[in-house]
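REQUEST FORM: STRUCTURE PREDICTION
Request ID: SP-0412
Submitted by: Lab K.M.
Chain count: 1
Length (residues): 225
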Amino acid sequence: MSGFRAVLFDLDGTLLDSVPDFLRIINELCREHDRPALAPAALRQRASEGARAMLRLAFDAAGDAELDALQRVFLDRYAANPVQDSILFPGIAETLEWLDRMQIGWGIVTNKSERFTLPILHRLALTRRCGSVVCPERVKHPKPDPEALLLASQELEQPPSSTLYLGDHRRDIEAGRQAGMRTLTCAYGYLSPADDPLTWGGEHLVNDARALQPLLQCLHSECTQ
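STATUS: Completed
RESULT:
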């Protein structure tokens, strides 16, 4: 894998460890409804499936109407403070700093709503550094459709063939491949026990975000020699 001139990231589970804030809010709701607290490890296995799936894990006997109400409360509380406890995965800050030093454009393509994504990037001081942010509101078809990735590469002014997409879910790798991009699987993200990231078709796999910057540096050196 070589020849990249732009890098795109998924957000949750790739750049950002969002589970601490998800867990904080869900366990608030558990306390308010006299439910046992949810363990962090259990939530990490469901985080990529969205708010409803995470709430279903904590409120397993809830009906649809109750889940609808819980989801509204969860999303409102999350929107009010989406980065109280969440942090960039260890190694991500160094990766972004290296990309900036090398003047390699980078962006974010996520299925997370702008309602949450844009405040998160602002709070993390990433808004001005990020060359493209594509959320579902900007496209007709979210991932695994490649539309959002193609829009981001256009905004970074690089062809898909020179763009690398990083994600922690099968849909990320599928979207990247369909877009004609090189793909890198982030296996440190929110995988379930049933997931086998080796079968997703990514051109490379990373088990620790701290390995990203050295890997990208190596790959970039290969393509510029």
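NOTES: The two ends are 14 Å apart (CA to CA).
Reviewed by: T.R.
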